[in-house]
Every structure is written in structure tokens, then in C-alpha cells.
Design brief:
- This protein has 5 helices and no strands.
- It is mainly alpha-helical and 127 residues long.
- It is globular, with a radius of gyration of 15 Å.
């Protein structure tokens, strides 16, 4: 139950960071932004927590025999596990297929990075 709470909090934090990056870029927040970016960051981040972060971090915990050193867990979930996703988003933006430009890639990258970072910290704290 605690890990589910960590996953929800990390996905929410990722959505908040996405909106903060959008706002910091000079874009006024509007209802379409909230209805667009929040679901597109929250639900994929929650799926990443359940299907990727948790199983890999559990395996890492087993391999290390515990949660020491604790910095490896946020490092794995924020950078290493998200690297294929970051590269895919960049490739899609370059191809002009999915994202309207590098600004949107930065928004989603920051959201998933934050979600992975917070999930990794929470996972390490629960150990």
C-alpha cells in the first residue's frame, strides 16, 4: 500500500512539474492545458511506476542485498530507466510526428524525470 502511495505521489509531482515548466516557459495556464498535460503525464508516469520502476528497483534491491547505497534507486528510476523514453520522445519530435517541438519534449521529459526521481527516493525510504 505504501508503494502505491509513492507511485501516486510521484505521478502527481511529475504532472505538477510539467505544468510548472509550461508556466515558466511563458505560457499562461488554461483549462485546455490542464486537461491536456495532466492526463498525458499522470497516467503514463503511473504506468511507468507500476510496470517499470517498481520491478527493476525490487530486482536492484535483491541484487544489492538491501537499499544501500540509497542514491542508486533514484538514479536508476530517474535517468537510466527513462533514457529509452527520452530518446524516443526526441526521435518523435525530430520526425515531427507526435510533438509540436522541443518545448513539449522538455515538458514531458521533466515530468517523467521528476516522477522517476521521487519514486526512487520513496522506494529507497521504504526499504
Amino acid at each position: 500500500m505504501k508503494l502505491i502511495t509513492v507511485a501516486i505521489v510521484s505521478a502527481l509531482a511529475g504532472s505538477v512539474v510539467a505544468l510548472a515548466v509550461l508556466f515558466a516557459g511563458g505560457e499562461p495556464l488554461s483549462a485546455p492545458d490542464l486537461l491536456g498535460f495532466v492526463p498525458l503525464t499522470f497516467f503514463p508516469a503511473l504506468l511507468l511506476c507500476a510496470l517499470l520502476y517498481a520491478p527493476v528497483l525490487r530486482r536492484l534491491k535483491r541484487r544489492l542485498g538491501g537499499c544501500r547505497p540509497a542514491y542508486l534507486f533514484p538514479l536508476f528510476s530517474a535517468l537510466l530507466l527513462n533514457l529509452p523514453l527520452f530518446l524516443l520522445m526526441l526521435a518523435l519530435a525530430q520526425a515531427g510526428r507526435f510533438f509540436s517541438g522541443p518545448g513539449e519534449v522538455a515538458i514531458f521529459t521533466s515530468a517523467f524525470f521528476t516522477s522517476g526521481l521521487i519514486f526512487g527516493v520513496g522506494f529507497a525510504r521504504l526499504c
